Amino acid sequence: MKMIGCLFPHRRTMSSSIARHKRARQGRIATEEPSASAWKLARYPALIFFRWREKRALSNLIVLAPANADEARQKLVYLIAVMVADPATPDAIGIANAIKTLKPFEGTLAHCLSKRRTLFQ
Fold first, then answer.
1. Residue 111 pLDDT > 90
2. Which residue of 5, 11, 50, 59 is most buried, as measured by CB atoms within 10 A?
3. How many of the other CB atoms lie within 10 Å of CB of 86?
4. For residue 12, pLDDT beyond 70
5. Which residues face 8 on adjacent strands?
6. Residue 39 burial (CB count, 10 A)
7. Is the full-model pTM beyond 0.70?
């Protein structure tokens, strides 16, 4: 649990961790785009910061244990999407850690992934 202020305990949810990683990724992508503005000199330090922020957000997402089957499904689908979008992002250790956190929901996730979905279902 993380403390907000000093009075209220706060548990990070899967959706907030996913949103944090999306924001970090969008910031990095926006910084990587070439520009001819006066901010060009600050681009390299900003890029280093955004890459660090994205990597940290992904690491926090990987180690976060889902509270229920819905969060486990969200995490699995999002991590698959991240790996497809950028194959260089996750490492083997990160994937192994993510699998460990999803183990308690193995049956539910297997059922979710094995469903055949057609256009009319």
1. no
2. 50
3. 12
4. yes
5. 4
6. 10
7. yes
The pair of structure tokens assigned to 37 is 């503005």
In angstroms, the Cα distances linking 2 to 6, 16, 42, 100 are: 10, 13, 33, 22
* One-letter identity of residue 4: I
Q: Residue 61, Cα to own-chain centre: how many angstroms?
A: 5
**Out of 22-31, 65-74, 90-99, 111-120, which region has the weakest mean confidence (pLDDT)?**
111-120
Secondary structure (3-state) at 34: coil
d(CA 80, CA 103): 16
Is-contact 50 31, C-beta < 8 A?
A: yes
d(CA 114, CA 121): 15
**Separation between Cα atoms, residue 62 and residue 21, nearest integer Å:** 11
Tokens of 106: 């193995």
Task: Say how far apart CA 83 and CA 81 lie, in whole Å.
Answer: 5
Which contiguous run of DSSP H or E holds residue 3? strand 2-4
Give the chain's end-to-end CA distance (angstroms, integer).
40
